[in-house]
Amino acid sequence: MSIQETESLIIAEFENFEDWLEKYNYLIEMGKDLPMIDPKFKTKSNLITGCQSSVWLHAEYKNGLVFFSADSDAVITKGIVNLLIRVLSGQTTDAILNAELDFVNSIGLKEHLSPTRSNGLVSMIKQMKLYALAFKTKYETPQTTSENHG
Amino acid sequence: MRRFFLKAFLFKILCVEFNINKIRTEFPVLLREVYNKPIVYLDNAATTQKPKVVIDRLRDYYETENSNIHRGVHFMSQEATSAFEHARENVRAFINASSPSEIIFTKGTTESINLVARSFGKAFLRKGDEVVISMMEHHSNIVPWQMVCEDYGATLKVAEIRPSGEINLESLKSLLSDKTKMVAITHVSNALGTVNPVNEIVQLAHSYGAYVLIDGAQAVAHHQVDVQDMNCDFYCFSGHKMYGPMGIGVLYGKERLLDQMPPYQGGGEMISQVTFKKTTYNNLPFKFEAGTPNVAGVLGLEKAIGFLVNLGLKNISTYENQLLDYATKKIGDIDALTIFGKSKQKSGIVSFNLKGIHPFDAGTIIDKFGIAVRTGHLCTQPLIQFYNIPGFIRASFAVYNNKDEVDKLCVAIVKARDMLL
């Protein structure tokens, strides 16, 4: 499924909610349910510290696709982290780098991605894109082979 | 039970005497709605709202009086200068300093503390000296001292607190010696509401020959402050936490100490004579006020002081204490909730957590009810490490808050708990 398709699906899911209570209940349920990261990846180097809540993010590159797993100490943050992972995980590096993530506005959660919210999510998206860029550079850019002049 | 009724009765009398509804009409922002609900503003320890007299003063100044002060011979400059110096005199009277020379205008408490740390540090701190703070300090009364201790090879020592949130005076005493040059401590804790026994601390520190700085940011809008009675050497506070404008604050310092301290910043206003070889500095308080000051801010602050004085600090304290008692009981009765800060002497702050719930999550839900509370480390990271929690949820009260708002907060807390547990 492409990024746009997943985004549309999430927007449709959120259209069913009548008020903020239902929306947040859904986010909380998603946040509670998912073991989203292998505990061995909950390391200090994978920690993105926000002023309010923190996020752990791990990325792997397999067969040309990037897979993310993550966790947060706050359940609402975790619910939103889950949405971001649904959209970006399993995509190509280019798709991740070009993703605009407009769905966050459409489902009325824009405030959570404001830099002033300091819940680690803005840094998390930045970090996801940085991983994509790093994998692209490492695995997808044609390597210049050094010629043997010997 | 009888005591409770008596308290409730007294509270009612105070409300009438105080006319909370009238006070509320003086704050235009309280009319606004958030998420289609009337705002319940309980983030007063971060900043208080502004009464109309303060807002009008700022507008009037810019509409009819704006002019740069001191040094001007023209009419408006002289008018603005006298208004500015008149305000300084009112600040002096407000905290009962002995002279207006002891009142330095700054950007806020943070700048006041930094000024003292830098200038006092340069004049008094030597290698091997010690500065004592407490575990409940705001970052702004920790970091400036860390920086200056590093510069002069001094050591920062931290007095412990008790789990109730009270200062451990034994611990403080054990840290004092003839090496102690400065004891910097908060009057009221921004996270726990603890009112520290500052008079006793000043006396204790002085008996070791140490000077004392009191961070009064959370105190001046709620308690009568008399710096001569307290006998502290420095007292710092901000305008915006006492119904005044942002960007204006005060440093009180004893004249003989300020005289011995070098200037904090160089520039206009703070000089007596400038040549490329040598500059001599202006007298107090101007020596510490480089550059064009925040004139409008000072005039707004003067109006905020007028607002407080008219209501009467004693009346304010009594009313806020009653509200605090009501809130502590009502919030404390909620299941799975723990209150942090149970000091006997306490100001209008209730910090708490819900068991198993991250404060950010609870704060997010409480916000949706149109209630402004603060969550997180509250600029007191060592304190949340002490309690071993990810942060606090803090409701902090001002003179315009009422029981109805506390009730609304409690409804929101219960809803947040039920959704998140």
Structure write-up:
The complex is a heterodimer of chains A (150) and B (421). In chain A, a hairpin with a 2-residue loop joins strand 2 (54-62) and strand 3. The model of chain A has no long low-confidence stretch (mean pLDDT 86). Chain A is built from six helices and three strands. Chain A has one domain: Sufe protein. Chain: A. Chain A has 150 residues and is an alpha+beta fold. Chain A has helices at 3-15, 20-33, 75-88, 93-98, 103-106, 121-140; strands at 47-49, 54-62, 65-72. Chain B folds into two domains: 2-51 and 312-420, Aspartate Aminotransferase, domain 1; 55-310, Type I PLP-dependent aspartate aminotransferase-like (Major domain) (Aspartate Aminotransferase, domain 2), CATH 3.40.640.10. In chain B, 43% of the residues lie in helices and 16% in strands. Chain B has a seven-stranded mixed β-sheet, with helices on both faces. In chain B, strands 13-14-17-16 form a four-stranded antiparallel β-sheet, with helices on one face. In chain B, strands 1-2 form a two-stranded antiparallel sheet. At the A-B interface, helix 2 and helix 3 of A face helix 13 of B.
What are the SSEs and their pairings?
The complex is a heterodimer of chains A (150) and B (421).
Chain A: H1 3-15, H2 20-33, E1 47-49, E2 54-62, E3 65-72, H3 75-88, H4 93-98, H5 103-106, H6 121-140
Helix pairs in contact in A: 1-3, 2-3
Chain B: H1 2-18, H2 20-25, E1 33-34, E2 37-38, E3 40-41, H3 52-65, H4 75-95, E4 103-106, H5 109-124, E5 130-134, H6 143-152, E6 155-159, H7 169-175, E7 180-186, H8 198-207, E8 211-215, H9 227-230, E9 234-238, E10 249-253, H10 255-260, E11 271-274, E12 279-281, H11 295-311, H12 313-332, E13 337-340, E14 349-354, H13 359-368, E15 371-372, E16 374-376, H14 381-387, E17 392-396, H15 403-420
Parallel strand pairs in B: 3-15, 5-6, 5-7, 7-8, 8-9
Antiparallel strand pairs in B: 1-2, 4-10, 9-10, 11-12, 13-14, 14-17, 16-17
Helix pairs in contact in B: 1-12, 3-11, 4-11, 5-6, 12-15, 13-15
